[in-house]
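Quick start: what a row looks like.
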Amino acid sequence: MPLSEPFEFAAEVWEWQGPASWCFVSLPEELTDEIDDRFSHRAAGFGSIRVEVTVGSTTWRTSVFPDSTRGTLILPMKKEVRRREGLDVGSPVRVTLTVVLD
């Protein structure tokens, strides 16, 4: 499957305050704007955009979602990824993200 060029950024893992415990990282606003400008025509339900992500030695496919409260796209951080990479809420993380172009 073709992918966009990689985007790299640093962020902090945070926990969604709701009935379920989900962890995310927020993409920087400038990166959110660039992805919106270039790839919003690929958005699916809820404005999601399919991506491939690498954190440490772990690579997986997921989607980023718009978060109107933060004004950015947010990336879900699976429990398995957090466990493998030793990440907790508040942990800094370096992310490489590419948009899936299929």
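That is the whole record. The mean pLDDT is 93. The two ends are 6 Å apart (CA to CA).
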